[in-house]
Amino acid sequence: MLALLVSAGFVAVVIGWTLGTPLGTGPDEASHFNRALAVGHGEFDGHAVPLPRSHHGRLYWFLLTTRTFNTPGILAERENQPCEAFRPTHPATCPPEPQPAATPARSSNATYQPYVLLPVGLVADTAPDRVAAFRLARLTSAVMCLALLALGASAALARANGGRLTMLAGLVVALPPMSIFLFSVVNTNSSETAAGICFAAGLVGLTRSPRSSVAWWAAVVGGVILGLARSLGPYWLAFGLLIFVADLGIFGLRTLPMRRAAIVGATLAAAALACAWWQATRQPQVPMTVRETMHNLPQALSEWAIMLRQTVGVFGWSDTRMPTVVYVVSWFIAIAVGISALIVGSARERVVLTVGSVGLLLASIVISAGVLHVEGFAMQARYMLPPAALLPLYSAEILRRHRVEARQLGRHLLLAVVLIGAAVQMTAWWTNARRYAVGTDGPINFLTHSQWHPILGWAPWLLTVALGAAALIAAAFLALVQDRLPEEAEAEFVDDRLVIALSRDQRRQRTRHRA
Fold first, then answer.
1. pTM summary value
2. Are strands 105-107 and 67-69 parallel, antiparallel or unpaired?
3. I want to staple 465 with a disulfide (CB 3.0 to 4.6 A). Which of 16, 174, 417, 483 is the partner?
4. Is 257 helix (H, G, I), strand (E, B) or coil?
5. Cα distance between residue 389 and residue 176, in whole Å
6. What is the dihedral of CA 452, 455, 460, 464, to 10 degrees?
7. Residue 165 and residue 129: Cα distance in Å, rounded?
8. What are phi and psi of 128, to 5 degrees?
9. What is the pLDDT of residues 42-78, one digit of tens each?
10. Whose CA is closest to 360, among 344, 377, 379, 373?
11. How far is CA 121 from CA 74, 127, 145, 304, in A?
């Protein structure tokens, strides 16, 4: 019931974003849409475009990944940026562009891994016209993301008796408005981010005993899609598995059913190999050197002020920001969950959480300085959201394990995290809607002054998002009530203590045997 309510809340919010935002306003959305149409027709490679004489800078790398495709036909979208892109004071009132010619369609992301775009292209190709195809592509991508999110929420909340509110708080922190925005547009980052949350929730669920079947499924399904989605997928799989192994330790790993674990490991390895094969045979290779990385390091470090905002949400073409107070409050609840976990966690858990956080921070700097700046591009937080989802979920799991100690911190803090998270989601949608309706200089109450209207007007999507936020708040109070059921909490305590006792007995027996 709780997982269903949480999933319904996020479904409503994502639908409000998907249908309440102009088409083509996601990052590189038209490019990904054209690529999806081509992939749906089985045209994976396309035709290369002429390259400039200089083999350096953004234009060179941009054209190096650009291809033209013949199969999308009249459904293809012009790859031009909408006229309001990077001009947040202008509403989405661009004059309609003429229908593009039947061929060719162009995509600047044409060498990226195509796997998650296949179902998007297959569904979009059934549409009668370009607008319907684009909207179908968005809805298909959103459904894929929501299915992964529902599976991840079920895994995070399964067998969390006595700690449901804690895990709900972790989910809310792991799903900032930036992730919700990505779920609503056509982009390979969309499925990658949703898969990262699903995979992380599955791994967290597998650290419990007894392990639920939904946690196994979340780890497999989320891990496979995460590994296939983009070039960094195999690295994010490795990051999650390292956190999982470090948390369980040798004795914890021995409690895993070996046959099932081997099947899961082989499946994840196959996904990583498929991603690596495409990367090696289709993607341009970036010459990463220590000298170039060190040269770009100051630029990479200077991006962090922008990156911190993007971790919460900067929408559209990175041109739509929320009020500063929203970012401050969002950072506060994320830091509160992390510090609380460090306070009550064991020595091992503190080390794993700290090393994982620092390692991910260093990885983002290296990727920015050693890869993106070599290509002439800046780092964006959406590239790091898939692995970052593991940190708040693992922090919440630590609080759940040590709920006796964490009880001193108060349930009110966890309840506040969920309530603030729901309010932030509502504020994010309103800010984005206002930007396209009247521009950022327009009236805050834009409903009666709107110059651009989504399909069916604003009222249905405002109501949908409001219902979604209300569902998350209701889920928080339901979790609070369920966590107070003494028989469930006591059963969970006994179960946890039994696992710890069994591990200690096994170690004692091995020590005696060796002696």
1. 0.91
2. antiparallel
3. 16
4. coil
5. 10
6. -100
7. 45
8. -80, -20
9. 999 888 888 766 666 677 788 888 898 887 776 777 6
10. 379
11. 14, 10, 15, 35
